[in-house]
């Protein structure tokens, strides 16, 4: 016998302000026992649907994916799909959203299509959704700006605490890199080798490169150079009488000319020009 289905939802009355925002909420709510949904033409907005109990199946683009506790499904607009419970009660919460920046933002997070995601910290994502629901429950209509702000926070949590497989999230990978990031920040003014970095993690130099690429999208020495440029900008602003070659040495560059070349490539201007533009008032 099917468990009784109950739902509670809040619709956001959309105004011209919403349509001008890069992200806006459309609706939010939950099902105690999510019933079968069939959308032959897809749906009009983006949806995040998070599972809290039971189990369901999502059928989309020729694939069938299970959705259990600790998982959620991100659905893109206008993509035909069907989902239904297989272990009841299939309890879910959802957030429906849209906005002209929704697609580009999701793509920048490598969410390029509808997918099922694993959550390493589902409680944090649940808390974000509960905050949205709570605001709706105490007000008939929350501010469009408040809704957009909360929605952005939710999407950032999905980026930090989810993955497409039951493996480490981006946030966990970043935490694994923390010892070597801390080492770089403490020793940026000294010569650094790839082996130095690998020693902080207890892994091979090759795997250190893989971790940097997967987590930060860059190579270790590219990250080191960017951090050194960042510290150089601080010296340029806070020490107006310090010569460029001294700054170059303090941030770990043996060659002042190489430092100037990298600085200009990064900032678009020379160190001296930067100093003149951003000198303290």
UniProtKB/TrEMBL annotation:
Organism domain of life: Bacteria
Any Pfam family: HTH_18
Domain TFIIE beta: 162-245
Domain (HTH araC/xylS-type) ranges: 178-277
Swiss-Prot/TrEMBL keywords: DNA-binding, Transcription, Transcription regulation
Annotated SUPFAM superfamilies: Homeodomain-like, Regulatory protein AraC
Residue ranges the record marks as coiled coil: none
PANTHER family recorded: ARAC-FAMILY TRANSCRIPTIONAL REGULATOR, HTH-TYPE TRANSCRIPTIONAL REGULATOR EXSA
Name this protein carries in UniProt: Helix-turn-helix domain-containing protein
Organism, as annotated: Paenibacillus plantarum
Lineage: Bacteria, Bacillati, Bacillota, Bacilli, Bacillales
């Amino acid at each position: 016998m099917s468990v009784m289905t109950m739902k509670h939802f809040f619709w956001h009355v959309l105004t011209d302000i919403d349509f001008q925002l890069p992200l806006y909420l459309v609706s939010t709510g939950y099902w105690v026992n999510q019933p079968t949904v069939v959308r032959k033409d897809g749906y009009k907005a983006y949806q995040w649907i998070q599972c809290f109990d039971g189990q369901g199946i999502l059928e989309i683009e020729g694939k069938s994916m299970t959705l259990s506790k600790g998982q959620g499904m991100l659905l893109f607009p206008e993509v035909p799909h069907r989902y239904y419970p297989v272990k009841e009660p299939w309890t879910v919460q959802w957030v429906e959203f849209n906005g002209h920046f929704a697609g580009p933002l999701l793509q920048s997070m490598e969410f390029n299509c509808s997918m099922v995601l694993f959550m390493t910290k589902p409680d944090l994502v649940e808390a974000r959704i509960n905050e949205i629901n709570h605001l709706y429950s105490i007000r008939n209509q929350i501010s469009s700006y408040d809704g957009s702000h909360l929605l952005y926070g939710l999407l950032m949590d999905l980026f930090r605490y989810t993955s497409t497989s039951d493996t480490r999230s981006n946030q966990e990978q970043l935490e694994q890199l923390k010892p070597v990031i801390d080492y770089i920040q403490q020793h940026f003014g000294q010569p650094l080798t790839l082996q130095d970095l690998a020693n902080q993690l207890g892994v091979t130099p090759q795997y250190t490169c893989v971790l940097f690429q997967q987590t930060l999208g860059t190579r270790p020495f590219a990250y080191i150079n960017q951090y050194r440029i960042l510290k150089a900008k601080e010296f340029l602003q806070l020490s107006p009488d310090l010569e460029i070659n001294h700054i170059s040495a303090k941030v770990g560059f043996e060659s002042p000319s190489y430092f100037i070349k990298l600085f200009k490539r990064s900032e678009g201007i020379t160190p001296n020009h930067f100093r003149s533009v951003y000198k303290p008032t």
